[in-house]
């Protein structure tokens, strides 16, 4: 009985370590996708005639709007 539960614990601890290692990779992929999306949106906006001088403040406003509540909750 003890040996079977010990094997389960080993299995779940190995699995947990794999998931912990994957978190970093998933975060990096999400960050790269966000950067690529922003680049495409910049290109589309510039091609449609929006001024880059207007687009940059919008970027900072949207980032602050999204990140401030997240930082407040996590810290």
UniProtKB/TrEMBL annotation:
Keywords: Membrane, Transmembrane, Transmembrane helix
Domain of life: Eukaryota
Transmembrane segments: 24-44, 56-74
Name the record gives this protein: WAT1-related protein
Organism: Nymphaea colorata (pocket water lily)
